Fold:
Amino acid sequence: MITRDERARLLALLHRAAHAALARYGIDPGAGVELSSYSENTVFKVSVPRSGQRLALRIHRPNYHSPNAIRSELAWMQALNAAGIGAPRSIDGLDGDPLQEVWIDGLGKRTVTALRWIDGRFPDESQLEPAMRRLGSLCARLHAHARSWRRPDYFERIVWDHETTTGPAAHWGRWEDSPGLAPADAAILRQAQALAGARLAAFGKGPERFGLIHADQRLANLLVDGDTTHIIDFDDCGLGWFLHDLAAGLSFIEHRPDAGRLIDCWTEGYTTVGTLSAADIAEFPTFILQRRLQLLAWRGSHFETDMAQGLGDDWVAATAQLGARYLRTMG
Structure:
């Protein structure tokens, strides 16, 4: 865990990196640069007073995605926009490449991309049922596009199967390492993980079930502007089960008493655009359990963040209760 002073020094270096990147995109060096998000990547809002141009300047975390993987993300977002599905739009640097690199002493080399700023607000989470219907219909549109899109030759994205999501070498770490996880609860979750793995092996990875997904399509990654909804934050997009996007919609609240109703709302929205088989619906609990384990791993590997620390021991205990219910109903 980094200290408050270490975090402040890191943010200062990232701010310098953002200013250094402006020239790569031909942006006025006097533009305003304001921290928008400090999470996996660091995003700065750039405002150019003379032109009124606004951008989201994204400084990518090191050692997560290769340049080709980032280009693949940008290509999919471009294709989605061309198909009428609102997603971030990247801009090219002066050399014609959307990917730029900056070097800052004390920080090292970082890859930067610039996206056009998207106006809007997050869905009203006090009105979860209509928001989940909206989310479901957007998921169906995204999945239909992913199935039909011809990927570029250089396409490369992360894979989200059961091992890379919840296994010992999972992308977000080991769920067993989450602070506050009691040994008895870990034993329950280990059994639930094994059952989920067996069921997913039987479910299979056919193209109708496994393909390109957003992988973090939750309400916090939607921006609503009037009648237009944009899907943002494609940083985790990759190859996985389409139903992972259902589970992502319930991120952090899978244990709520009204979770079943929220799943019904998502399903209602999805089936206005796409289709779900009886086998898909029967496996909903498996994907929800897998996502919850993934988030438990994220809590452990990101425990220095305010969000991870806000998920207290009660949330961890509720995860074990979710696992016990999964064993009772799906075993």
Q: What stands out?
A: The chain has two domains: 4-116, 128-330.
